[in-house]
Design brief:
Blueprint: H1 4-14, H2 19-33, E1 37-44, E2 50-56, H3 63-69, H4 74-82, E3 86-87, H5 88-91, H6 94-97, H7 101-107, E4 114-122, E5 126-134, H8 143-181, E6 186-191, E7 196-199, H9 201-209, E8 213-216, E9 219-222, H10 225-237, E10 241-243, E11 254-258, E12 271-277, H11 288-295, H12 299-309, H13 314-321, H14 325-339, H15 344-353
Antiparallel strand pairs: 1-2, 1-5, 3-4, 4-5, 6-7, 6-12, 8-9, 10-11, 11-12
């Protein structure tokens, strides 16, 4: 049976993708620990840059004030140093705390008198904590209050880790977005639950047109029920594979699922790519620049592969590029190793998947 604790934990994990869920969770935690305000924040301990990730009962208009006072926040500094939960009275006597500028300009203006904080995600350079504030009428926080708060902080840490990984993935995607936008095929980055993380221009156009694919509650779906069921099974099992046209006689698309989101950086662990290929789409000429950008080849490898894709033999390619035959063959071998290819036929198939057209070899 799901109880209030389970529902609260569910809200915490929902906050990995939904800011509003953390606000609701923090409000419920305030009720549990008898707090007037509760917040989740991340502070860089070198620059003192502060990021509020969620708050209940805390005045956001005072964020600039806190930014100004952050370097002198002794309580947060002690939490970062010790990596353990603390109340204000564990760091300094209350009589000393109430005479600080932080208390006068931030606490008092909100009616706060006591504070406790519990680290959720700890690194040498940054500290994330769940922090709770109490007014004078309820007295200071004590050890039992820290224990009550601690029931939830580990979940916040794991959910925050998920969010930070997603943000780093988004940064990697932004860095590679120009390459993705240049592809004619629809490319989508998803997680194992088929939740959409990123889509290139071709994929966004396909989603907007509601053809072949759609989003339902943020999850990717194929219009064809049989193909959609297969995609769900493959994604859940972490398997790569291809879903071909169902053979209805009309122009159909091919869906390829790659269980590893190669090329998106280490932050894409646990993600997969979906590539939707139109077999009848007009193919591009594989120029060296496009090959280098899309396949990650060196400049010379790109020139050699472009020559072979145009139908030249290795001998002809060597002559056209002014290379000795053994040198050209070395570039071909290294390009094949990088692309995990074993034959010219596999090269042609790979180029086709990337939207390139090739000329039959003259050999």
């Amino acid at each position: 049976m799901i109880d209030n604790y389970d529902r609260l934990v569910g809200l915490i994990y929902d906050g990995a993708t939904d800011d509003g869920s953390w606000t609701l969770a923090l409000k419920q935690i305030a009720d549990v620990v008898g707090a007037a305000g509760v917040g989740l924040g991340l502070q860089d301990m070198r620059t003192h840059e502060f990021r509020s990730l969620g708050a209940f009962g805390i005045d956001p208009d005072l964020n600039p004030t806190y930014q100004r006072l952050a370097p002198g926040n002794t309580i947060w500094r002690e939490i970062a140093r010790r990596n353990e939960p603390l109340t204000d009275t564990m760091v300094m006597p209350k009589a000393v705390f109430v005479r600080t500028e932080l208390y006068a300009d931030w606490f008092r203006r909100q009616g706060f008198h006591g504070v406790m904080a519990f680290p959720t995600l700890f690194k040498k350079s940054a500290s994330a904590v769940v922090v709770a504030f109490r007014d004078r009428s309820l007295g200071d926080f004590e050890g039992d209050d820290l224990a009550a708060l601690g029931r939830f902080t580990g979940h916040f840490g794991r959910a925050l880790g998920i969010r930070l990984d997603r943000e780093r993935t988004a940064e990697v995607l932004a860095a590679t977005d120009l390459m993705l936008e240049d592809l004619g095929d629809a490319i989508l980055l998803i997680d194992r639950a088929l939740r959409l993380i990123h889509a290139n221009a071709a994929a966004r156009a396909m989603l907007y047109a509601n053809k072949a694919i759609r989003l339902h509650q943020g999850r990717l779906e194929l219009h064809d029920p049989e193909a959609d069921a297969k995609l769900k099974r493959m994604a859940a099992a972490g398997r790569s594979g291809e879903i071909g046209p169902p053979g209805t006689g009309r122009t159909e698309l091919i869906v390829r699922l790659s269980a590893r989101a190669n090329g998106f950086g280490v932050t894409s662990a646990g993600c997969a790519t979906v590539r939707i290929v139109d077999p009848n789409r007009e193919r591009e000429r594989p120029t060296p620049l496009k090959l280098r950008n899309r396949l990650g080849l060196t400049q010379r490898q790109s020139q050699v592969i472009a020559a072979l894709a145009s139908g030249a033999t290795e001998k002809q390619a060597a002559e056209n590029l002014g290379l000795a035959a053994p040198t050209l063959h070395t570039h071909v071998r290294r390009a094949y190793e990088k692309l995990d290819l074993r034959s010219r036929a596999e090269l042609v198939a790979l180029l086709a998947r990337h939207g390139f057209g090739t000329t039959p070899s003259q050999r």
